[in-house]
Amino acid sequence: MLPTVAIVGRPNVGKSTLFNRLVGKKLALVDDQPGVTRDRREGEAHLLGLDFTIIDTAGYEDEDPQSLPGRMRIQTEAAVDNCDVALFLVDARAGITPLDEEIARWLREGDAPVVLVANKAEGRASEGGVMEAFGLGLGEPIPFSAEHGQGMADLFQALLPHL
Ligand code: GDP
Ligand code: MG
Predict the structure, then answer these.
(1) Measuring from atom 26 of ligand 1, which residue has the nearest CA?
(2) pTM value?
(3) For an engineered disulfide with 54, which of 16, 45, 116, 123 has Cβ 3.0 to 4.6 Å away?
(4) Could you tell me the fold of the domain covering 4-162?
């Protein structure tokens, strides 16, 4: 059985884009419209010779924002419970939000090793967000671009010890 990596993060940070890039098929739905990923999806990921099962968690973006953190917590903890590594995605362009900080808290309390990925890091607009991600207390963020495929070697290096 392959090791399992769960992608977690608030809506719209690029989880499904990363999933698609690693699985190499359009299995996860990505759209500019928030709320496109409705289901948890699993695929077989390949990253520079590493093979693992990857889980893309849904966003619930289309539902009542008041209850979003509670539902995200249940979903995040369920995904992370059965994984070898949690891949925590933040949006380096948007910067760190209160929901990112909340997710970071759940992950710090959990048992799964966390790899922190600062996505959308192509170009200079992301430099401040990458710095902010350091403040989450989950180690050094990996500057990454799921859309452009940047940071793959660094992601490989970060996952390797856990898989
Ligand atoms: P999810 O809700 O976390 O699954 O996010 P999606 O994968 O659906 O992506 C949300 C939006 O961010 C889409 O418009 C993507 O095209 C965009 N996006 C994803 N990755 C990147 C990236 O590396 N750079 C930029 N600039 N945009 C990205
Ligand atoms: Mg998605």
Answers:
(1) 120
(2) 0.90
(3) 45
(4) Rossmann fold (3.40.50)
From first to last of its 163 residues, what are the pLDDT tens digits of the chain?
899 999 999 989 999 999 999 998 655 555 544 444 455 788 999 999 999 999 988 755 556 767 778 878 888 888 888 899 999 999 999 999 999 999 999 999 999 999 999 999 999 888 999 999 999 999 999 999 999 999 999 999 999 999 9
For residue 141 and ligand 1, the question of a CB distance below 6 A is answered with no
Most ligand 1 atoms within 8 A of CB, residue of 10, 12, 18 to mutate: 12
Ligand 1 atom closest to the Cα of residue 150 is: 23
Please write down the long-range contacts of 33-39, taking CB distance under 8 Å and 24 or more positions apart: 34/59, 34/61, 34/62, 35/11, 35/59, 35/60, 35/61, 35/62, 36/61
Give the Å distance between the CA of 36 and the centre of ligand 2: 6
Task: Say how many Å lie between the CA of residue 31 and the centre of ligand 2.
Answer: 8
